[in-house]
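look at this:
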Amino acid sequence: MRWGLVFLVLSFLFSASSHARQNSQIMFDQANTLLEENDFMGALDSYRNIEQIGEISGPLYLNMGIAAMEIDSVGLAKYYFLKAYEFSVTRDQANEALEYVSSQFSRQSAMLPKLPWDRVVDNLKAGIGATGIFIIGFLMISISVIVIILNWFKSIKIPKKATIIATATSLSILTVILAFYVDYVDQRYKEGVIIAKEIPVTTQPNENADLVSIAYEGYSITVDAFTSENAEGWYYIRLGNGQFGWIQIPGSKIL
């Protein structure tokens, strides 16, 4: 009886999931029809409805970018193409679209090269991630502990054992610390795009504060999520040229 109930629950969940996917596919097909009929705003609204129910995909974001381009919202198009780039199935198409979009901005942002350490952290986030690094560090610590225990019981003989054990333990601990640091950076700093035609960057989260710069449509930004929590309706950002300041949230999108 109990297993029968479990089976019924699982069957219901699977059926509900399949039904939701079916509905989202129907919605996607309808949105594509609107796109083909040049109803770009209607198509974009329909794609957003699919996004809101969590049925995201590379083709969805790619088509959203196309629709945004057609309504002359180039910054928004860049945002959606960047989202499409995150999916392997649409990476090549998204990359081509991003190259085209970048050529359409009337103002180009200055971009300082990232520091080597920042590039390393970015590569780690995009690669194995904080969880992967932590697992490696944990395994290294576990191996070090096992080696120490075996050494206590004289099960193995290690030349220069003190140096080897100390080095292995130190590397293990540093790897775990690195995992926490990568996770911290990932939680605190988010990449974003300016979607407004232009937006003031100010010294304080206040419209009357001193002006730092003007951010224009398509500019890439880095949002400090932790600092931004101190001011509702504002993001604390870093521009590509190294300048810091505050912008109002509606003029940007976080990836």
